[in-house]
Amino acid sequence: MDGRVIDRIIQYGELKKSDTVLEIGAGYGNLTERLAEKAGKVIAVELDASLASFLKNRFPNVEVVLGDALRIDFPAFNKVVSNLPYAISSGVTFKLFRYKFDYAILMYQYEFARRLIARPNSEDYGRLSVAAQYYADIKFLESVPSSAFRPRPEVRSAIVRIIPRPPPYRVKNEEFFMRFLTAVFSQRRKKLRNSIKINSAMLGINSQEVSRLPRDLLEKRAEALKSEELAGLADQLLEMS
Predict the structure, then answer these.
(1) Is the torsion defined by CA of 29, 34, 36, 42 positive or negative?
(2) Choices 3.50.50.60, 3.40.50.2000, 1.10.1040.10, 3.40.50.150: CATH for 3-164
(3) Long-range contacts, 182-186 (Cβ 8 Å, 24+)
(4) Which of 67, 134, 147, 229 is 20 to 30 A from residue 83's alpha carbon, by CA?
(5) Closest to 142 in 3D by CA, of 96, 107, 103, 92
(6) Which tens digits make up the pLDDT trace of 167-220?
């Protein structure tokens, strides 16, 4: 990664010696080294055994954890700064929401980052947008061109800041809400009435119950509804199941 991009990531992190930073996907340690200079402790998670071995004992304040970030338990940390492996972006992001931390500075694929911050009635707005914004405030910090990496990937990247917070609204069952989002956004071109009926078995509801929901909302597509409206529909459906 270009050193200038690493510099900006470090600046966004506003690291102090009192910080314990989680880095997921440490690789060869280019970012790890800079994190170690600024933070009191770095927890570097790496799946590749040879890379983990390469990193061990290179920096006195870096704890290298060999393992799959989606499967292991993370040690205590208060900040996250990572160039995430893009294949596990979604899984890692939602796993982080189960932990308490101040904020995260994360590198994502550009398109994924756009979906994280998307608002209703936009092309990028979908399940990921609603679900992630339920748990955190998310800000797009900057786009990073593919030329900043070696070898050069085929995609652009983006740096995003995530600040966890209590949900701005409450749902009766988070697991059902997430299933509901999957159901309605899997049929993006269909009106809610039809997308809910098609996925009634997955939701565990009688498809005939859909007609009891507010008609004005049922005639819209999921992408046109605010997250609070989607949450309200999910709660009503849960009561019918």
Answers:
(1) negative
(2) 3.40.50.150
(3) 182/127, 184/222, 184/230, 185/126, 185/127, 185/222, 185/223
(4) 134
(5) 107
(6) 999 999 999 999 999 999 987 788 999 999 998 888 888 888 788 888 898 899
